[in-house]
Every structure is written in structure tokens, then in C-alpha cells.
Amino acid sequence: MKPTPIQSGRGKRRVQRRWSVALIVIVAAVVTTVLALRPRDSATPLDPNLVAVAPLANETGDATFGPLGRLAAERIAQGIQQHGVAEVVPPVVALTTAEEAQRASDGVQTFARATGAGVVLHGAYYLLGDSLQFQIQITDAVDGKLMSALAPVTGPVEPATEVLGLARERVLGALAAALDLRSGALHLPMQPRSLEVYRVFQQADYHDQNHDVEEAVRLYRQAWAMDSTFYPALVLLAAWLQTGRARRAWGDAARAEADSLFRIAERYRDRMTEAERLFLQGPLDRRRGVGPEAHLRRLRRLAELAPYYRQAAAGAAWRAYRPREALELLTRVDTVNPYFLSTPGKLGGYRAIKMASHHMLENYEEELEAARAARRESPRDLGVWEDHLRAVAALGRIDELDALLDTVYALPMQELGSGRFRTPASMAANFVAMELRAHGYPDAARAVLQRALDWLEARPAEEAQQIGSGYSHSSYSHLVGDCLYKLERWEGARTLYEELLAESPQDTVALARLGAIAVRQGDAARARAISDQLAEHPGGQTLGRARIAALLGEREDAMAFLREAYHQIGTTGINRNWGWFVMQRHWEMDLESLHGYPPFELFMRPRE
Fold this sequence. Notes:
With about 600 residues, the protein is an alpha/beta fold. It contains 30 helices and 9 strands. Strands 1, 2, 3, 4, 5, 6 and 7 form a 7-stranded mixed beta sheet that branches. The protein has a two-stranded antiparallel ribbon with strand order 8-9.
């Protein structure tokens, strides 16, 4: 709702004198410009990178404030040019074309066509007692959509230069953010108080994307200190402080600060835009362990507001076992955008979601085609090799697979960050061997597993220790145990997992495996006791309990555990990524007794 215009009765003559000089200058400029202008071809396409600032409409109800709208437009245009935010239509040109556009029914579009600008800044100002209020909008004239409606800027009537300065700073920050949002170089719509605040945020985002946690945290904190209404900086600061990297850098103090910041953010929720509230909800959902469908609904909407999140929405669809939706969302990702191509992990994530979704749908040829294309660009990336090997194994091309494995074993291990490593053996034992087993090639699967085990046992002690520096399920000993288990060497696997559990009593991966081994060795009572133990751990290792129940032939219990696991996606310590489990259900040799069981087959069917 617009503020009610108020007719000022105070010192009109003084105000008139104040603006008379400015008005004379502007009129002279207009006359000069009119003589220089040439008619513009209305069919000429609008330049999406050119900005035009229309004089703001005087809604004060007092004609003496009329020149202020032209002066504001001129100062904003000068700021845009001086700070390199965008190319801008010269103010004198914009002034003349704006007067012509005012007589048209579609003023903004007429103004855009007359100037050739694809982006138009327009708005109005109002008199509220002793204050002036500016309300300004940024419109994408190419598609006629509103890019940003700035929060009202209010300041004293005298001196008017003060509120003009505030409005200009707000516009510069919001325009830079709006242009970056349109280009896909920004996460979500935002309105920093100034261009300076936004540029600090940009630096923080750069370090964020490059996983430089200390510098990202420092700069997010600086942006928040500069503008306490800039909620994206607050939420990203809190989100980073709750990560494992922050805890390793600053200990428990990081988590305590994150908790405090999230409480502050919750208090300001009502003041946030819809996009900011959705953005805040992400880390809160991760802390609370919401289900995959709620996570997907949030990202669907966020993707509508910010193109950056289309890929994240596709990932959420895949994790919720909706591969068709994931592929459809990927078609709307701007893959030729320079920001997309230069951002670490974006292109790799795009490829991974695409190939995994094809695999879920059993489109193995399409998956293989995409993997080959990715390999041509990243021939030494083991993550790309995983996808390639998985597709070849699913297609049963054994000879081709053997040749590819020779190449993979010649590649070095790949560090993933946080002390984790991707190894040829982990790829072979999981992606390749179990894919072969699932598609009816048990002998080939055993050969691949044996080769992985031989490779692991041949590692020098220093390299084996390096593999073991990651998370427990990626460690050297767990990889050896995984190979032994899948080769059905129960006694050797049992001994190794007992040693791991003795070293780390909280190792639920080892405990769950011991429960499965107990069933396979005929000790059902011990298996049930272990399942009960798992229930006492945070998250309950629900998938481990499902495996034990399936091996015991307790199919209804197994299904109950699987459904519970699905709804636990996102909870710390338990099955964060259901998509991987469903896609790689071939890993789950312990669930083979459920194959053909209608509730299981229905549950494993891709969701529409």
C-alpha cells in the first residue's frame, strides 16, 4: 500500500528557490539532448546488460519536490557508471525518453524500447511528515519481470541529499545483486544496504565456493557487521560454523556461535523475504533431520526464485528418488554460464546427478554416453570413472570393463577434502563388483573383488594409513572388511570388524556388519542382540537393522526399517543420501531376500 501523499504547507517559497537552479540546469540539458536524439527503431532488441534509470515519480502531492525525482535518477545513474556496476544510459537521454514514455500506457516498456535498455530502474517518492520516502523497483524489460522491489528508503526532507545518498547506496547494492542473480552468479535475491556490503559478500562467496572456511567465515562475519539487515550473510555464517571443517578449526566454539546465530536468524524470520526464509530453512532442516520430500519442496520453490538453485533442486529430486524430475530440472540449468563453468564442483555435481538419475531409470546407455563425455573433459577424475565403470558393469561388457580397470588402477588416489580419499579399490568393490553381481555376473564380480583386495593388501603402510585418515567407512580397514564380506569370507571379516569395534565402540558400521555376519554364521540370537544395540545409537543405524532383519527372513520388519531410514534422510549420522542407497541397491547383497517381495519392489520403484 502506498503512503498517503501529504500536502506540505511549510516554507514553499524556500523549497522552490532550492530547486530552481537544479531545474534550470536540467531543462537546459533536456533541450540539448532533444536536439541530439534520433528516433530509435522499436524492433531493435533490448540490451540485457544496459541499465536505464527513469526519473522517479513525485507522489508527495507537492510540485515543488518535482525536480528531486530527476536529480535522484541522475545520481543513481552516475553511481552505476562510476562503480562499474553496469553500463548505463546517459541521464540526459533517459530524462527525455522518460517524458515521452509517461504518455504511454506501458510506460516502463516504452521507456526501455526508447533507450534500448534491458534493465529499468523506476519508482516514486512520498512525503511522510518531515521525511521523504523512496520506493524503487528494478525491472527486467526483456521479459517484463520484476527483478527486485527495494525496501523503502526513508530520510529527512532537509537536507534531501541525505536520503538521496541512502537511496543511491541501496540501489547500487540491490542492482549488482539483481544482475548477478539473473546471470546465475548469486544464490538468491538479496538487498544489501550498499554496494560495499555486497562486494564483501561476493568475496566471502568466492572463498566459500573454494572451500576456504576461515576466510569465508571472516568475510561473512564482516558483511553481517556492516549490515545487520543482510540476512544471507548471517545464515551462511551460521551454516559454515556448524560444519565439521569449522569445528576442526575452532573446536566447540564454532558450534556454540552457530547456535547463537541461528537463534538470531529465527527472531528476524518475519522480516525476511520469502527467498531468505527458504534459504534459512536449509541449514535448520539439516539440523532437524527433515524428510526428503520437505527438502525437495523447499528447493523447488527456491529454484523458482533463484536460477542458482535449479541444480540443487535436481539433486534433491534425485535424493527423494524422483529421477525423472531431476533430469527435467537439469534441462533448466544454464550450463554455458561462465559462473557455472568456473565454480568448483558445479559442473561435476551436474554430471553426477544426470548420470545417477539415468542409472536409477536403468537408462544405462544414456548414462554411459554422459560418462564418456565427462571423461573426455576430466580423464583423471576418479569420480567420473565411477560413473563410467558402473554403466559398463550394468551393461555386462566384461572385456571392456577389464581394460578400463587396468587404466583406473594406474591412477593415483583422489583426495576429496576433510581427509577423505577415493580409491580404485573402493570403486571396484562397490560400483563395479556389486553391479556385476546384480546383473547376473557373479564370477566376474568375485574376480573384481579379489583384485580390489589384492590392491589394498599391497599398499605400503604409509599409503594404507593415508587411506585410513578419512571417515571410518572410507578407511583402509573398512575397505578390506568390505571386500572380505562380499567375497563371503565370513570368519576373516568377523575378526577384522571385531578389532575395529574394540578400537572404536561407536563404530556402528562395524557393529551392523557383525550382526549380518552373525546371521550368516547361524547365530540368529546374537544378530538380534546386535540389532537391539544399534537401536541405542543416535539414528539407530536403521539400514543396518534392515539388513539384519532381511537376512533373518523378517521381511515386514526389514521394510519398516527401510521406510524409517527413508524419512531419516538429512539426520546427522544416518543415511544422509537415500538416492545413493536406492541407485546402488545392488550393493545391498543382504537385501537380496527381499527381491520379488511386492512391498519392497513398490518401495524401490522411482517416485513420480
